[in-house]
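User: For my dataset I need records formatted as: sequence, then structure tokens, nothing else. Please produce one.
Assistant:
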Amino acid sequence: MASHRRPKQPSRTRVTVLTTAAAAAVALSANAANAAPSEKLGKDEVKAKVDKLYEQAEQATEKYNGAKEKQQKLQKEISTIQDNVARGQQELNKLRDGLGSLATAQYRSGGIDSSVQLFLSSNPDDFLDKASTLDQLSSQQVEALKKIQDKQRELAQERAEATDKLKDLAATRTELGNKKKEVQGKLAQAQKLLNTLTAKEKAALAAEQARANRSSTERVDLGDAPPASDRASAAFSAAQSKIGSPYVYGASGPSSFDCSGLTSWSYAQAGVSIPRTSEAQANIGTRIYSQSDLKVGDLVFFYGDLHHVGLYAGNGQVLHAPHTGAVVRYEAIGNMPFQFGVRV
């Protein structure tokens, strides 16, 4: 006899799981069908993004330069303080030795009653001379103690100052490391973008950069603008001698430069010491807000945060170290957001 049992129904849990899975599969299929394929950036778009990253890297570079300069300054100051402390400790040791000698002399001479010393002395006149000296020992000890206390306070202050500067140095080194990572990160992002280009596109970009370097290092009409001063003229000539040198972040010559590295190196060749960073260089002379008043050798600053600096070359041109991938070259001052000039 045939069996007429009802077929076993799937459990409610199983039905729910199957339904959910089916819905997810449908959703994924729909998303896959509707999703737009990832668009590859064109050469010009990549260049625009890379240029922006290079600008951000230069901003970080100037902060890196500032931290590096501060680190070097702190190291010199700490070294000077430590030398002073070492010399001070030697002076303190001598003062203590001198006090010990006084105490020993007093003990030796004061251990016997003066009348007995006179009786035992073979030369009474000599004894009386010594007695006069012994009477002054207490005042000498007081003076010696005062000198020791003053020297101890001085050393304590110098040690405290050294401790504070060492803490500042540690914080500066951390900042230096962070800024270096930031610069390297921006450059790595730029390289990653460049790597998305085809070989043909990369070659085209390289050719554009080469043309920009050639046209701005060889065929620039500088006019006949006068120099700001003899030293400004000498600084500008020094910068001209480095045309074609590569931009390298944190570099200040003589074979590679970043923007403020070029300006500080150039003025150093003219016998003028100026700060290392563009932000600090902006505060060292007379500001000139009209481009028409600029003279050859004046420092010229760009962008709101003053993270870029060059040397005015005349005829609306600036001589500068632009960014990674470029060389020291001339460029129209209008290609960047000019803020003001500074006459050193």
